[in-house]
What we know:
The complex is a heterotrimer of chains A (about 160), B (about 400) and C (about 190). By secondary structure, chain A is an alpha/beta fold. Chain A has one domain (about 10-160): NADH:ubiquinone oxidoreductase Nqo5 subunit (Beta Polymerase, domain 2, 2-Layer Sandwich). Chain A has three helices and seven strands. Chain A starts with 11 loop residues before the first helix and ends in a 33-residue tail after the last strand. Chain B is of the alpha+beta class. Chain B has helices spanning about 10-25, 80-85, 95-100, 105-120, 125-155, 160-180, 205-225, 230-235, 245-250, 255, 265-270, 290-315, 370-375, 375-380, 385-395, 400-404; strands at about 40-45, 55-65, 65-75, 190, 195, 335-345, 345-355, 360-365. In chain B, the strands form three sheets. In chain B, strands 1-2-3 form a three-stranded antiparallel beta sheet. Chain B has a three-stranded antiparallel beta sheet with strand order 6-7-8. Chain B has a two-stranded antiparallel sheet with strand order 4-5. Chain B is globular. By secondary structure, chain C is of the alpha/beta class. Chain C is built from five helices and four strands, in the order αβαβαβαβα. In chain C, strand 3, helix 4 and strand 4 (about 140-145) form a beta-alpha-beta unit. Chain C is about 30% helix and about 10% strand. Chains in contact: A-B, A-C, B-C. The interface of B and C includes residues 55 and 170 of B.
Amino acid sequence: MALEIGTNPMEMDTIAARLVADFGDELRDVRVQEPDTIVARCDKSVLKDLAGRLKSHPEIGYETLNFVAGVDKVSHIESIYHVYSWKTNTYLELHVELPRAKAEVDTVTGVWPAANWHEREAWDMVGIKYLGHPDLRRILLKDDFVGHPLRKDYVDLVENHPHV
Amino acid sequence: MFEQFDTPEPDEAVKLALRRIDEATARGEGSDVEGLAFNEVVVNMGPQHPSTHGVLRLVVTLDGELVKDVIPVIGYLHRCKEKLAEKRTYFQYIPIVDRTEYVAGINCEWGYVMTVEKLMGIRPTRRAEFIRVITGELSRIASHLVAVGTFTADLAPLGTAMVFYMFRDREGILDLLEELTGARMMFNYFRFGGVRYDLPDGWVEKCREFMKRMPKMIDEYESLVDDNAVFLQRCMGKGVITQQDVMDYGITGPNARASAVALDLRRTRPYSVYPELDFEVCTLDHGDIFDRYKVRMMELRESVRIVEQCLDMLPKGPIQLGSLRAPYVITPPPGSCYVGQENPRGEFGTYIESDGSRYPYRLKFRDPCFCNLQLFPKLLSGNKIADAVAISGSIDLVLGGIDR
Amino acid sequence: MSDASPERSGLRYPKLEHFSEPNVITTTADFIFSWARSHSVFPFTYGLACCAIEMLSSGFARFDVARYGMEVFRPTPRQCDLMIVAGTLNEKMAPVLKRLYDQMAEPKWVISMGACATSGGPFYDGYNVVNGVDKIVPVDVYIPGCPPRPEALFQGLLELQGKIQQHRFVAEKPAIAAGVPAVAVDAPAPAEES
């Protein structure tokens, strides 16, 4: 099996229309961001199922996960999944909004194995808990670090600076 | 004074390794010799280690010489770059991006500057685009020289001549870049809409002369190791990255190209003036250590070709957009954007979210080495420890990018 | 910072001056030992970040550190006398640094190479960054720069050579720096500086 790029080139508007047609009720606010990205939003409850179906879509399979980013928008927290489709050579940026008080969402490690470390980093930096993750522990910071630094209300704590 | 002799408390990674051994024992996968207890040892490699290319710590579970499991522990160089982005203006952040993958500073700057330009909706001048390609490819040559040089230095600790020759030639490139930008390593050269300095007098001739010498030097490097039976035996057939791995883990760059995946962002999603240039995407079939080394050598030759073409096609004109001469505080409109760029190690992407103020709201780097390092447990298991060192050298990691 | 001397760690050597006055034999022996020590330093490759690449460059053919006798970069602290901390130190790495410094045998020196190791550098306000290596280990020479050129590293190494040559290992000499008291053998050990 040779991994080819761009075997099924499609116009961005066609891809957007196709996604709306196939995943209409789960994938919301689909819009095209030139030149090669589709931005969409989905609910956290449908994420795992939707991810599996996005990956196995016959014409626009989003087979590779580029990164997972956690963003603290003060009213809520977002988990952003940036995935790549080899067949159409385009990206999809999926935003999942989580309530700030309980920032939990299902892991997508079962769908995209690359999510393992990316989700660990989002947990470490922003404090999003990924339910079902095989090994959710801190990755970049030391194990006894207190707090999640990339939250907007993070304050530098004395406990985190023993060697000041 | 005697703390140095205490065994440290096992931390999370070591506890995880020990737990995995216990679980394997409970499943009955003990020693294969009747009557002997389970014989695996947990050994710590790093974070200070000559062969881990920076402060990478590998908690290795060994059965004799055989590596059973590897748990990479990173974060020993975490410098809070993503948080610092929220306290620096876009322009103040350019020198900090340089230090992400410090071996290929220009390429990292390029990725960041391209993302901000896309957010602002501006395009650099044509002369600046060509200068960007020239400096980017020079930086790629320098980075591959470091990568292959340190890889061969790992195989025999500094015992190969290759690393000395490669660093000697890297000095030639750093001289060119120093004359242009003022610095040997942290260039701080790209600006939004162009570059900082124009090419000095005589620089084009010096660069052309260096590019004429380069292919002979690449031949010299290859002649040192390509026929060496020990090198071939250590490198061929080991550490194979399959195409399924490339798809599952997002492996990009020469590591993917050595597995017959023609993924080169300069071709598949071209940026700058690459569509006008004639170069090949170097791929090989086996995906082992030798192919990864060979792809980098082939890319050196392609980069030389690209630089020569750009020097011939270099147009006259301004190197910066007039409107951005001064002041340098920019406020991109609210929105978000991601741009990926072909770093010597893979796809280096920057995701920026802007809220219309002078500081980025959120900046996230998609680092190629972070994704490549995830493959380690799968790649190193089942090999001898010496092969593990060779494999980790061939993946070409720079901890500055992994830890940010 | 405190002068790097054997008294610092609490080890007490009986000095020859307790048996005789410093004389031409002890000072000549001192001179020879110090000269030999300064010209055969074994650096410890503690390259953390970008400065490590400049340290590597200085070890190779163009900027040859072997002309100062320092080309033997050993990766294990037990065989080294000089630790060149090149790069940013962060909270996760700090205990490792302390441990490796403790594992070096006396006499040992530390060079802090680059802006990050000296004072945190461009990352000084990071939540995870230690603002300077001298918060963990005593530093003898600071080399500014981001990264310092190999020539700057050599200037630092030459300063260190000068400092090593001022050490007296055999016989005690009046204090070099003002305010450093000469320590007698039955005085209590000076307090550990942390």
